[in-house]
Amino acid sequence: MIELPRSNHQPAPAIKFVGLGGAGANVLDRLILDGLDPDSAIAMNTDVQALNGSVTRMKIHLGQNTTRGLGTGGDPDLGHAAAEEAAEEISAALAGGDMVFVCAGLGGGTGGGAAPLIAHLARKAGAFTVVFATLPFAFEGRRRTSQAAEALAQIETQADLVVCFENDRMGEALASAGGIQQAFIAADQTLSQGIRAVAAIVQRPGLLALGLDDLSALLKKRNTRCLFGYGESDGPNRAHEALDRALRSPLMDRGRMLAGAQDVLIHITGGPDLTLNEATILMEEFNRHVSDHTRIHFGFATDPHLARRICVAILSAEEAPAPVAKKLPQAARHVETPAPAAEPTAKPQAELFSAPLEQEPSGQAGAPDEDDPGDSYYNSPPPSTAPPMPEHKAVPKYAPQPATAKKEERAEQMPLEPASRGRFEKSEPTIVDGEDLDVPTFLRKNTRVK
Amino acid sequence: MGKDRIVVGLEIGTSKVCAVVGELKGDGSVQILGVGEAPSRGVRKGEIVDMENCGKCIREAIAEGEDKSDVMIKNVYLGVTGAHIASFNNRGSYTLPEDREKIEEEDVARVEDAARTAPIPARNMSVNTILQHFYVDGQDGVVTPVGMFGRTIEADHHIVHGVSNRIQNSFQCLKDLDLEIEDFVFTPYAAAQAVLTQSQKSTGVLMIDIGGGTTGYCVYAGGAVKQSGCIGVGGDHITNDLSLGLRIPMGKAEQIKIREGSCTLGNSLPGETVTLKDEHGFAGKEIEREMLNTIIHMRVRETLELMKRDLEKENYLDYLGGGIVLTGGTSELRGIKHLTEDVFGMPVQLCKARNVSGVTSAFENPRYSTAIGLVKYAQATTGSEGGGGWRWLKDFFK
């Protein structure tokens, strides 16, 4: 007998979870409370008090000398310097991880300042690096919003994948009803579910496996915002309920957010008793929410621990409305103390990013050392007369097509209408495929009528 | 069966508002007692755009209906339509508790609830949820599952939904007139109740209801509604096209459409003309017949093709043993039967309401199909539900 080697028996990739700053620590705590292995979690913060409050076992205090145990006061440069001080400690902690998941809130100093550096260190250690970033609520002020946009652009040059969540969106569903605390909790919850789902996708070998290639396909475009929904159910009609709950997640807007998506990833995990029929019903229902052109990345796994539960995770990305960063007063900050994170030039960026797309989940995706873009991070001199923000270079490059073609189509129709709609002039137009059906057919088809 | 009951079907159409008063006989037949009708104002493409004028028209139609039937109208069955209305099929499933294998009423209620709670957009409301079939442990086409043995029971529903604000406009109109809404129905579904026979429904049929402002359709296969929808184009558009193309007023365009218009091309002699007589304020005009027909033909063909494209999204067109049934006011247009046959490539018949008695002029005319269908719908639903089930609506309007 010939024994064929089973392809799936290699161990699941080891993932290290880094919670950075206040927001990251909250999410990490929630993950641990939800059953994450505490040994794989590392909390990092500049604020010693906050760090001590975390339930994580492994903690790294950033910037013992720089901030002396206090926070950064919202200054990303300080956050960056603090992380730099602890760089060796961080590298040591990250060693041995096949993948590193960094979660950070980008509005503040620690998350925004240190995240690019930590992503960089993780990649240098040879790990596939995924950054889960949250953008601050709008009510936190424009300064934080623009700081976050800046940090995001830097992270995008360092990490293999960036999954970006908008707090505003996540809080929206609750903020009006519940208090501000609930809005933050909702945001944390969504983020932690998202992290768990992504971890499950890469760790749990499935019947129909999803891989990093699928994730990359979703998130390869720059400056995207992640749409994520998660639901589980063990009720009698569990397939329907799980999907329904996933679609009810704040970021899904009852499935409407999916209508325009190019790529949608759906991952179904069920206990051993999950039937094909249920999967079919679920997918049929799901298909109603996406358009015919959407590419669906479908993953399916069973997990005996789930018993009768079905979990559905939906992940997609939409393009951010516009480059978020504006020229705001803090440009001055860069002239005084140019953040080293601002350096990476366009060339290593491109290479860093083309690499992960071909890599396998188990292949320890990091190893980007051919060109050693890692070192360019430190070696290239700080630009003393640098352009104020790196994303001014990066964003236009990766954010093409400012307007959608559909809208233009309608706009072109406009001049025709007033002259030729007759009695329907004042009524709402009936537009099908960009044609206004109220305009006489013979006019639209250019048939000559005397 | 219960005692005779009088119900009123009210259709607020684009060309007319029409109230049909019908008596539901204990033996299951329907007798039309009277029809009230008023030309419609303030309705475009099936939706109310001018509440005040529309209210007046409804009042006129109701008053006429009361006169003719000698019945005081308090409650109505309302037809709703509009291009915003969409539909889809949804399946709900329910697994019986471990200790039981025989399906009971409550299980059926559970599975129906599951199928009804379909994800529709937040600004929409459900108009009708129509039961299609049950499945018991995957067994197809079960009609009454109660009493059967099985583990899982599934139900398919056809769910029709539309933008709630727009639907509520017509509710408000009726509320202003102190009329209560017994139930509301998507008009193509109502019309189908009036014009289709049971055997047509089971062999598969496409019913097209071409009205003044909208064209609705409803596909039946295997005895259940499979697909339904509405396009915001109707007879009004033909008139408008004629008015713009021939440069004549709307009134004249409507007149010539009804009197002379046809969808058939190449049927007129070269140079043949139609004369619009001169009347006060209108100079009279000679119109080339071929041109008249070309304008009508293009509009109707386009509408049918749009509908065909909608229908082709799901492949029920191959299963229509009963062909196509045309109804609605615009189905009286000459040549529309042949044009529809040409577009869809299957036999077409023109139909009006059937299986009703009473005022002959009412059911002899396809334009009343929808309003009569509303009465038939009342008969079909209250036969089993006993008139309840929509109390919440009344509470809603208090």
How much of the sequence lies in strands of chain B comes to 25-35%
Mean of residue pLDDT values of chain A = 69
Number of strands of chain B: 19
Question: Looking across the biggest beta sheet of chain B, what order are the strands in?
Answer: 11-6-1-2-3-19
Low-confidence stretches of chain B: 384-398
Summarize the amount of helix of chain B as a percent range: 25-40%
User: Could you say which structural class the secondary elements and strand pairing of chain A correspond to?
Assistant: alpha/beta
Kindly estimate the percentage of residues of chain A that lie in beta strands according to DSSP: 15-25%
Q: What is the spatial order of strands in the main beta sheet of chain A?
A: 3-2-1-4-5-6
Reported for the largest beta sheet of chain A, the result is: 6 strands, parallel
Q: Examine the secondary-structure arrangement and name the CATH architecture of the domain at 87-161 in chain B.
A: 2-Layer Sandwich
Q: What form of chain A results from the Cα inertia axes?
A: globular
And the CATH topology of the domain at 11-159 and 320-402 in chain A?
Rossmann fold
